[in-house]
Amino acid sequence: MTTQADYLEQLTPDNAAVLFIDNQTTLTLGVQSIDLTVLKANIEGLARLARMFGLPVVLTTTGGGADGPSGGLLKGITDAFPEVDIVNRTGILNAMDDPRFAAAVEATARRKIILSGITTDFCLVYPALSLIAAGYHVFVAVDASGSWTSAINDAALQRLIQAGATPTNVQSIFGELQNTATNRDAEAAKSRMSEIMEWLDTYTPAPSLIGENFAARQA
C-alpha cells in the first residue's frame, strides 16, 4: 500500500504517468460540470504537458472507440501521442479490468498515476479505485475530467479522496513537474523555457502579458 512518505513525494518526470480514460468526442458533449471549451483545452494542455516532460501515457476508449457511439479520443490527445496504441474496450466499464490496459499501466513502471477521464463518476472512478487498491498514488486532474452535473462530479471526487486519491489540476501538475525537473537538472529545464512559456500562455490563466514579456526579453 502507499505509505505516507510515498503519498507526500512530489510528482517528477521520472515517477509519473498519465492515463486518459474515455476522453471521447461524443461522451464529452454530455459533460455539464465544467465548460466544454475549458474542459477540452485542459485535456489538450495535459496531453501536451505529458509530452513536454516525457511522461508515459496510456490511452483507452469505451464502446468501440471511434467506430462506436461514444466516438474517438479527442484530437488533442491523439495529436500529442500519435504513436501510442489505444485500448478500445467494449463492455468493460473498469479499464483496469481489461488485461491490456492493466498491462500498459504496469509497463509504465510509474507509481504516481495522473488520471483524466469522462466521466468522473463512471469511467474514471472505477479504475482509480482499483489503482489505489493496487498501491498506486492516484492524482485526479479535476479540470481535465467531468461529469453530467456538478453534484455528481463532486460526489465522485469525495469518494476518491476518501479512498486516498489526490485532487489536483493541470496548472498545478505543471508547476510540480517543472519544479522537480529544475531541481534535478537546471540547465535542461532552462532549455525548455520557450516551450514552457508558450504552454503557460495557452493553457493556464497566466495572462498573455507574461508570454509577451518573455518574448521581448529573448529578442
Overall description:
- This protein has a 6-stranded parallel sheet with strand order 3-2-1-4-5-6, sandwiched between helices.
- It has 219 residues and is an alpha/beta fold.
- The mean pLDDT is 92.
- It is globular and about 45 Å long.
- The chain has 2 domains: 4-175, Rossmann fold (3-Layer(aba) Sandwich); 185-218, no CATH class.
- The protein has 11 helices and 6 strands.
- Helix content is 51%, strand content 14%.
Q: Which key phrases capture this entry?
A:
single chain, 219 residues, alpha/beta, 2 domains, 6-stranded parallel sheet, Isochorismatase family protein, Hydrolase_YcaC-like, Isochorismatase-like_sf, Isochorismatase-like_dom
The largest sheet, given as strand count, sense and whether it forms a barrel, is:
6 strands, parallel
CATH fold group of the largest domain:
Rossmann fold
Strand order of the largest sheet: 3-2-1-4-5-6
Beta fraction of the residues? 5-15%
The figure for the number of domains is 2
CATH class of the largest domain: Alpha Beta
Span between N and C termini? 51 Å
* Order of helix and strand elements from N to C terminus: HEHHEHEHEHEHEHHHH
Shape: globular
Number of helices: 11
